[in-house]
Write a structure and sequence with these properties.
Elements lengths: L1 E7 L2 E7 L2 E3 L5 E3 L13 E2 L8 E2 L2 H7 L11 H9 L7 E10 L10 H18 L4 H24 L3 H11 L1 H12 L6 H6 L18 H6 L2
Parallel strand pairs: 1-7
Antiparallel strand pairs: 1-2, 1-6, 3-4, 5-7
């Protein structure tokens, strides 16, 4: 899998995404999001590509399947990468592949429906892909960070839609659990190899900084 250097179409001096990061509690964000484009030339390994502009080997998709249509939008590319990496596939960020991206043009940054989908799909993402017994081991931390995210959304943004999304995800738990069995059967790496794929875990109060560069997009579209 190959990730491109995605630049904001209206801010071409700022990186939108150079691939996907994910941490031990299952929070995903754009690698190098908000940074200035550098002069790097050599590809480097990332967790996976942002599907806004990505390249996938056909063999990857034949083995693990396509984007999960139940996700509809948002985190579906993280789900695909999370299925591919434990199955033994690699992902590279290719700086020479440059794209100008209209970020969140479909629903708009900060829109109620996007918040709902992110809340729902985040729960599905973790329940579908996180391997055992490490899901049980990290579950207390996952819940702590997710409750912090819900509290932040309610207090800082008066956003109830992400909470509704999580409730919807849990109401359809049996469907996702059936998919989980197929995903886990593809895993061919050890826990040590899996941990090497993850970004360091930040304290909960630092997590919002990962998305700070997107606030201007939300404010300009209201």
């Amino acid at each position: 899998m190959c990730a491109s250097k995605m630049l904001f179409a209206n801010q071409p001096h700022v990186i939108n995404s150079a691939g996907i990061n994910i941490d031990p509690v299952g929070i995903a964000w754009d690698y190098r999001g908000g940074e200035q484009p550098g002069q790097e030339e050599e590809p480097i390994e990332v967790f996976g590509p942002c599907a806004g502009a990505a390249l996938y080997r056909r063999a990857v998709l034949e083995e693990i399947g396509l984007l999960d249509e139940d996700f509809f939008a948002y985190l579906e590319d993280v789900d695909l990468a999370w299925r591919a990496r434990p199955a033994g596939w690699r992902a590279l960020y290719v700086p020479a592949a440059r794209v100008y991206h209209l970020h969140s043009a479909t629903l708009g940054e900060g829109s109620p429906f996007k918040s709902f989908l992110l809340g729902r799909n985040k729960v599905w993402l973790i329940l579908k892909n996180y391997p055992m017994p490490w899901l049980a081991y990290y579950l207390p931390l996952i819940l702590l960070y997710d409750l912090s995210a819900i509290f932040y959304a309610l207090v800082a943004r008066h956003d109830f839609h992400s909470l509704r999304g999580r409730a919807r995800a849990l109401s359809e738990l049996s469907k996702i659990w059936q998919k989980r069995r197929k995903v886990q059967a593809l895993c061919r790496i050890t826990h040590y190899e899996w941990r090497k794929l993850l970004a360091p875990l930040d304290p909960p109060w630092k997590v919002p900084k990962r998305y700070q560069h997107l606030k201007c997009l939300s404010s300009t579209r209201k």
